[in-house]
Amino acid sequence: MRLVIQRVSEASVSINEELKSAIDCGLLILVGIEPNDDSKDIEWLVNKTCNLRIFDDENGVMNKSVLDVKGGLLVISQFTLHARTKKGNRPSYVNAAGPDIAIPLYDEFVTELEKASGVKVGTGEFGANMQVQLVNDGPVTIIIDSKRKE
């Protein structure tokens, strides 16, 4: 499971020109799921995400988590995070899980993130054509892959 986490001052997702979810200060989390991902990946990533210290403290040092700043969370499914680009110019998505595997894991990730954070997590819609808007604060962008825990 791969996450691209962006610290944002605001973010939103719309589908068919209709606002689905929006947050102010917090994290926009893009989620890519592989066929061999499971609940252990989710548990590790939820813990990492909630405790990632990428918000400034009173001294301007990134020393606070999204929990510390009581930030919002917006989670968007994005199979393209597992694109293979080694050959040719057209990406291959063979490493991305199909909907039968990905949807339950995506839903579980959102549920576990809500439990761990204590806040309602905003989402997009799995498989929909979404328009995501954000103001990346910093900019701060972190990539975390549950298969590369070093």
Automatic annotation (TrEMBL):
GO terms for molecular function: D-aminoacyl-tRNA deacylase activity. It catalyses: glycyl-tRNA(Ala) + H2O = tRNA(Ala) + glycine + H(+); a D-aminoacyl-tRNA + H2O = a tRNA + a D-alpha-amino acid + H(+). A motif (Gly-cisPro motif, important for rejection of L-amino acids) lies at residues 138-139. Pfam families: Tyr_Deacylase. It is an enzyme of class 3 (hydrolase). Its EC number is 3.1.1.96, 3.1.1.-. Keywords: Cytoplasm, Hydrolase, RNA-binding, tRNA-binding. The keyword Transmembrane helix does not apply. It comes from the Bacteria. A Gly-cisPro motif from one monomer fits into the active site of the other monomer to allow specific chiral rejection of L-amino acids. Homodimer. NCBIfam families: D-aminoacyl-tRNA deacylase. Belongs to the DTD family. An aminoacyl-tRNA editing enzyme that deacylates mischarged D-aminoacyl-tRNAs. Also deacylates mischarged glycyl-tRNA(Ala), protecting cells against glycine mischarging by AlaRS. Acts via tRNA-based rather than protein-based catalysis; rejects L-amino acids rather than detecting D-amino acids in the active site. By recycling D-aminoacyl-tRNA to D-amino acids and free tRNA molecules, this enzyme counteracts the toxicity associated with the formation of D-aminoacyl-tRNA entities in vivo and helps enforce protein L-homochirality. This is D-aminoacyl-tRNA deacylase. The lineage of its organism: Bacteria, Pseudomonadati, Bacteroidota, Bacteroidia, Marinilabiliales.
